[in-house]
Design brief:
Elements: E1 11-14, E2 17-26, E3 29-38, E4 41-50, E5 74-76, E6 83-84, H1 88-95, E7 104-105, E8 110-116, E9 127-133, H2 149-155, E10 158-162, H3 167-171, H4 183-198, E11 204-214, H5 216-226, E12 236-240, H6 253-263, H7 275-283, H8 287-300, H9 317-322, E13 330-336, H10 348-351, H11 358-370, H12 379-393, H13 400-426, E14 432-437, H14 458-461, H15 471-490, E15 511-515, E16 524-526, H16 530-548, H17 561-564, H18 576-579, H19 583-603, H20 624-628
Helix pairs in contact: 2-15, 6-8, 11-13, 12-16, 12-19, 13-16, 16-19
Length: 659
């Protein structure tokens, strides 16, 4: 297109090397990018482009404002801008070493564009666009962590990475129109709108946009599929290790806002305080004090994350999905085989040591389950649930390594369960493809018992492994980037050299692709880990709903103490009122439930452990064991990450919320 033809070419001296620049004119100004010469080809990078007005001052805790026209203003788009404000210690230790710009700022709403330089920019056919949403549990990260150059060159697509507000600054809400929350999601929305208006000037096609992300970025992708505000802004989507029904919503935003205001002396802590006065005070607070308050509140409650605000997200995600209230975009959704590795990142003695003991296994397994339910369950129900869980996951040998492996299997199974649950509904309305990444990277920093850890897919999708991996891994990375780009361009995600036809997912066939090195037709499979997904999607919810009528929150994927703390801190009582029936009727129902569960075990090979012999090791703990984990005080018993007492969930489970 004519608008992409460089206005002029210039030679700049940067570190004694000549750099070719390129200028693109838009309604918001002229942007001067630079051409990067790589061993894979040349790519033009436009870095640090603003897509909204700075969210500072009166714009803090508000939807991002669109830029005003500045056609005659020239911007140097040759360097990354600061990351959004986040925990300083974690940012400096984990993220900053990998960033060219190691600073943070509240003024952070910028995006980066990677355009293949070898293509004919004057051709009539514009390029497909891929917009990346980074992960980090909605608390950490930056768009500049991901170099889109190799993906752009390999796939002949334009890649866009963005920053969006995080933590308290990105998700604080008051449960009314004063501050709805979801500011980080609204930032993403504004970036999508910016791309629609401007990407044609960079050679992109605004009518062919794929939104993709990993972890909380994948969660965000799913929420945009649901949001009526995002409809028409993209036509394809990819969620890597996450979906819209992950159990990560903030269900008590006002309470958290009040806690922050107390911390900063903006209120006495009353829930009846005027939202206007509360938000006014917080808008005038120092941003560093807000970040400190964020850390303080998160340590005692839960991270600031998306919420049902009635605006961006009108209803509960699962309700919207079941009712078909989502965009019918082509969709890829998948996961890695050891997603649960993220929950062990802060437990080095477990991750790299002999494993976990029985007490820790019991505690962590109970956390996975209770993360799915909004309030404690009657003790009789927890007895049956707990017996069912132990029958499926308790190892035959009293071995610490086996306890650790079975815990990771449980984490994997719930990830599979929520992935397939979402795919079931999406595939009824649009093309949907499911994958399962199951290759241990040669560069893995995890012990040998971990295969594809959480986020291991990123080095393949962005080509980082091309410089350091094995020959097979380099081939897989090239193929994977080509498949993602092919999906973005045509809706066809096939890996070209493997000569296999990746089948669309349907509830009847339940087809998926197992992604490994040296793929062949044997990688085309059906019914992914069906025993585990049936347990979490059907058996356990069936037990609870039949006895109480309480519906699960769909997924247990990220239910460390950060998510479990969302639950009411009250212990369940063993009473007829809990059941809404007489004791005799309750016992009859319990017997029926046990018989149903036993039958399912017999006919389902993956649940065969449920018919194992009964011995003292398989006797469930006391009725109060699972329910005590609902009590927030339990999560503050442990002070040493290497000392775990019976019945004491580990408090260093932040990575369990690393969505």
């Amino acid at each position: 297109m004519e608008s992409i033809i460089p206005a002029y070419m210039a030679i700049l001296l940067v570190s004694s090397a000549s750099v070719l620049t390129e200028t693109v004119q838009t309604k918001y100004g002229r942007y001067i990018g630079f051409i990067e010469d790589t061993e894979y080809g040349n790519v033009t990078q436009f870095l640090g482009i603003p897509y909204a007005k700075p969210p500072i001052g009166d714009r803090r805790f508000s939807a991002p404002e669109a830029l005003t026209g500045q056609e005659n203003v020239t911007f140097d788009a040759d360097h990354f801008k600061p990351a959004c404000e986040q925990n300083e210690a974690i940012f400096n230790n984990i993220y900053a070493p990998h960033l060219a710009n190691k600073t943070m700022s509240e003024d952070c709403l910028y995006l980066n564009i990677y355009v293949p330089s070898s293509v004919d920019r004057t051709r009539q056919e514009p390029l497909a666009v891929m917009i990346w949403l980074h992960g980090g549990g909605f608390q950490f990260g930056a768009g500049s962590l991901f170099d889109g150059s190799r993906l752009a060159l390999t796939g002949d697509v334009i890649v866009v990475t963005i920053n969006y507000r995080l933590g308290l600054l990105g998700f604080l809400g008051t449960e009314d129109t004063v501050a709805r929350g979801n500011w980080g999601l609204m930032d993403q929305l504004r970036a999508l709108e910016w791309v629609q208006i401007n990407i044609e000037h960079f050679g992109g096609n605004p009518g062919n946009v794929t939104l993709f992300g990993e972890s909380s970025g994948a969660y965000s992708v799913g929420l945009h599929i649901l949001s009526p505000l995002s409809r028409g802004l993209f036509n394809r989507a990819i969620s890597q290790s996450g979906s819209a029904i992950m159990n990560g919503l903030n269900r008590r935003p006002r309470e958290r806002a009040i806690k922050v205001s107390q911390y900063l002396n903006c209120s006495s802590g009353s829930l009846s305080q005027s939202s206007l006065s509360l938000v006014w005070c917080l808008r005038h607070a120092d941003v560093k004090d807000l970040v400190k308050a964020d850390g303080s509140i998160t340590s005692s409650l839960a991270p600031f994350t998306p919420t049902v605000d009635g605006y961006f997200l009108p209803k509960e995600p699962f309700d919207m999905i079941k009712q078909g209230l989502f965009s019918a975009v082509d969709y890829i959704i998948g996961m890695n085989s050891d997603e649960g590795s993220a929950t062990l990142d802060t437990l080095p003695s477990v991750l790299y040591g002999e494993g976990m003991n029985r007490a820790m296994f019991d505690t962590f397994l109970s956390q996975i389950f209770i993360g799915s339910y909004p309030s404690p369950l009657p003790a009789r129900v927890t007895d049956v649930v707990w017996s069912t869980l132990l029958s499926h996951y308790l190892p035959d040998d009293n071995n610490m390594a086996d306890y650790r492996r079975r815990y990771l299997d449980a984490r994997r199974d719930v990830f599979v369960a929520q992935t397939l649950q979402y795919a079931k509904h999406h595939s009824a309305k649009a093309d949907c493809f499911v994958y399962y990444f199951n290759h241990r990277s040669s560069r893995s920093q995890y012990p040998d018992y971990i295969r594809a850890a959480h986020s291991d897919d990123l080095q393949f999708v962005f080509g980082r492994i091309l410089n350091v991996g094995t020959r097979e891994e380099k081939e897989l990375s090239t193929e994977w980037m080509g498949a993602w780009a092919s999906f973005a361009k045509y809706g066809n995600p096939n890996f070209s050299s493997s000569q296999i036809d990746w089948q669309r997912y349907s509830e009847s066939a339940r087809s998926y692709l197992e992604i490994t090195v040296n793929m062949s037709e044997s990688n085309l499979k059906t019914r992914l880990l069906e025993g585990g997904s049936m347990l979490w999607n059907d058996v356990l919810p069936g037990i609870v709903s039949m006895a109480t009528g309480q519906r699960q929150q769909v997924s247990m994927v990220a239910s460390g103490p950060g998510m479990v703390a969302l639950r009411h801190s009250m212990a369940a009582t063993d009473s007829d009122k809990d059941w809404g029936m007489s004791t005799q009727q309750a016992e009859e129902v319990m017997l029926s439930l046990i018989l149903i569960v036993t039958f399912l075990v017999v006919v389902c090979a993956a649940l065969v452990r449920m018919v194992c012999y009964v011995d003292k090791k398989r006797v469930p703990p006391s009725r109060s064991f699972v329910n005590e984990a609902y009590d927030l005080k339990v999560f503050h018993k442990c002070s040493n990450v290497d000392k775990v007492r019976a019945g004491c969930p580990h408090k260093s489970m932040e990575s369990a919320t690393k969505l």
